[in-house]
Structure formats: C-alpha cells, structure tokens
Amino acid sequence: METRKPPQDFTLRVRRYDPESGQAPYWDEHTIQLEPHRSVLEGLLQAKGRFDGSIGVRCSCKAAICGSCGVRVNGQPGLACHTHLGAALKSAKDGVIEIEPMGNMPVIKDLIVDMDAVHWKKIARVTPWLLADEDNVPEREHIVPKEAMVDVTQSMACIQCGACVSDCLSMELDPLFIGPAALAKAYRFVGDPRDVQQVQRLEDLAQDPHGLYACTHCFKCIDACPKGVAPMSQIMRLRRRAGSDHHIKDANNGFNHEHAFVKNIRRNGLLHENDLLTDSFGGKLSPAAGAFMARSLPVITRALLRGKATLKVALSHPHKAPADVKRIFDTIEARPERVEFNPYITGTDEDNAPNPPAEAPQTGPHAGQEATA
After folding, report:
1. Using one digit for the tens of pLDDT, what is the confidence trace for 195-206?
2. pTM (2 d.p.)
3. Predicted confidence band at 277 (pLDDT cuts at 50, 70, 90)?
4. Does residue 208 share a domain with residue 162?
C-alpha cells in the first residue's frame, strides 16, 4: 500500500476576471501547503480561505459526482476535485499549477462560467427527457431488453460538468454547434426503445446545420470527459442510426459525405481525398459538385502552391483496392442488419480472450460484498 507523502508547498496561478469591474483578466498567484494526493479544489479553497476570499470558484460535492467544479488545469479541462495536486504539478510547465475557467462559455467571475448561457441551453435543445407512448401506457413497468439499456449506459454516466464543451474545437469555430454534451444526451433517448420519437429526433438533429454532422472528429471531448462518456462516440452512433438505419438524407450533405467515404475506400483501398469531394456531391459530372469545386478554388490553389496536392495525383489516381478490402466490404454489406459494436455489450478483446486476465483482488472493509442499488 502506497504511503501518503507529507504536506508540501504548491503554487497556484489562478486566472482572475470580473466582467463587472471593467478591468482586463489577470493572473494571481498563491502558495498553499497540502499533501500531493489532495485535490486542486482543496488547494483553491485553502487559498480562498487564507489569502483572498474574493476568489470565485464553484463547487459542491467534492467527490466528482455533481460536476460543479469544472476548470482548466494547465490548459486541460477537468474537475478540480478530481485532479490531484501532485499530478497537476507534474504537468505544469514551470512548476506552477495554472488554473483557468472553462472555455466556450462566458465568465461570470474568475473560475465560474455561465453554463446556463451555453451548456444548459444546448441540453434543452435536444429535448432531454423520454417521449413515451402515452396512448399505450403499460399497467406496470415498461420492460426493455437488457442490451438496449446497456447500450445507453455510457451516455447516462454524464454528470453535466461541461468539460467536453470547454474543449470542443467545433464550438470554437461555430458557437451554434449543439455540442458534445447535448448530442451525447440525445443518444441516451434515441437509444432507448421506450422513446417513440427516435426518428423525429434524428431527423431534427441531422437537418440542423449545427447538428450531428457539424462534429469534426477531433477527439478532444473524449480526452476531456472525467466519466468516460466519450461524447464523440455517441455522436457517431447518432450518425449511424440516422444514415445507416433510417437513411435520413440531410440538407447539409452529411449523409452523402459519409457514404462517399465508404465508396472511396471500397474503390481505392486508401482514402483519395480528391475524389472524396466530388463523390460527396454525386460525382465529377454533378452540377452540385461543379458549384462546390468553383467555390473551393482558392483552397485548391493554395494546396497546389504549397505542395499538399499535385495535378498528377488529382487527375490520374489509380483506383485499385486490394481483393481483401473488397471482401471485407462484401462480408459486411451482406449482413441482414447492421452490427453496432459496443464494448459495454460485447466486451473488449481482453474480455473475449481464451484466458481473460484475472480481476485484481479486492481489499478494504467491503471486499467480497456484492454491490446493490
């Protein structure tokens, strides 16, 4: 068992800002003394209690459950109560732990951001409650398959801390983007068989120019989430439900763009981006493709000048996918229905190995007891 280290000094550099004061943001440093296993939140509260009671910080449970204390520590979003001072010091650039408010949301004061203005507004956008069949209410409980509820377990783990919203690159470019937290919440109900408006939800999110096809796959939300919700994975599930299961063709060309990827890989074996653009609009002879190419001429010209693309590769790319690649596509497309991989249901490669790794023995006062809820 690891022996806890004695208290030591930690210097916290806190981003201070009060919009009502009219002053520009500034950095404020305080040196606190705590054990390395204590949290950044405890360090902030010690600085607030001993040195400056005006430091603005939001917190409640101090146990990584309520999601109130979301901040950025050394540039990375997370929960202040779930980040150890020792770990934060290791990632600090100059031996000073920097603490800032979360991004993509307006600052109310210091480390407190206005989640109502962005996060909760976007959550409300996706109708975050079950839309049941009110004409056929069961006499008792509504029993659903276990696999269906396990499928939405990951999205249900969200504690609405806003860490994924803080780090979302799509929201930086497009503040109207519905966002990772709200779309993960949307999948919680799209994946619930008791909801009777799944198709309507998908249609709404697909047709919205700031909806499920506005995600750029940057993976930042997956890294930011302290609960393993993997919002981008939930967005991809929404896309597969909308495009592959219900064949919803959206005005944003997201459906055609994703199918162009499949066509491109099947034909080439590797992604050929020059074909991808035109295939997304129906092929090189499509009027829509021609119009988009014309609008993209400045970008294409810069790519040619900088050597990122050549006319030879663009015009004479050999289309020859290996037979093994084509066989994979034939096998998948021959299945009667789409198979959704979810490690919560199927297990991981390690779980399904002939000799899965043994679980570590439990220790402590509750060892050997079954968990109940």
Report:
1. 999 999 999 999
2. 0.86
3. confident
4. yes
In a domain, 251, yes or no: no
Mean residue pLDDT across the chain: 89
Number of domains in the chain: 3
* Closest CA relative to residue 37, chosen from 73, 111, 88: 88
Q: How far is CA 70 from CA 38, 53, 57, 76, 234, in A?
A: 16, 19, 9, 10, 21
- Tell me which residue range forms the domain holding 309: 267-340
Q: Which residue has the tokens 């219900």?
A: 246
85-102 tens-digit pLDDT: 999 999 998 999 999 999
Taking CA atoms, 320 is separated from 103, 110, 190, 269, 335, in Å, by: 45, 57, 39, 7, 24
User: Is-contact 244 208, C-beta < 8 A?
Assistant: no
Same domain, residue pair 279 and 328: yes
Note the Cα 17 to chain centre separation in Å: 28
We report the CATH number of the domain holding residue 46 as 3.10.20.30
Q: Is the CB of residue 59 less than 8 Å from the CB of residue 80?
A: yes
Query: What b/e string do you get for 331-365 counting C-beta neighbours within 10 Å, with b at 16 or more?
Result: eeeeeeeeeeebeeeeeeeeeeeeeeeeeeeeeee
Residue 293 sits in the same domain as residue 202: no
Q: What gap in Å lies between CA 11 and CA 235, rounded to an integer?
A: 39
Task: Tell me the per-residue pLDDT of 103-154, one tens digit each, with 9 for 90 and over.
Answer: 999 999 999 999 999 999 999 999 999 999 988 888 888 888 888 888 899 9
CB 66 within 8 A of CB 72: no
- In this structure, are 224 and 308 located in the same domain? no
128, 223: one domain = yes
CA–CA separation, 162 vs 230, rounded Å?
Answer: 13
282, with CB counted inside 10 A (0-12, 13-18, 19+), is middle
Structure tokens given for 357: 């790794």
pLDDT greater than 80 at residue 21: yes
Which tokens is 88 given? 């934060």
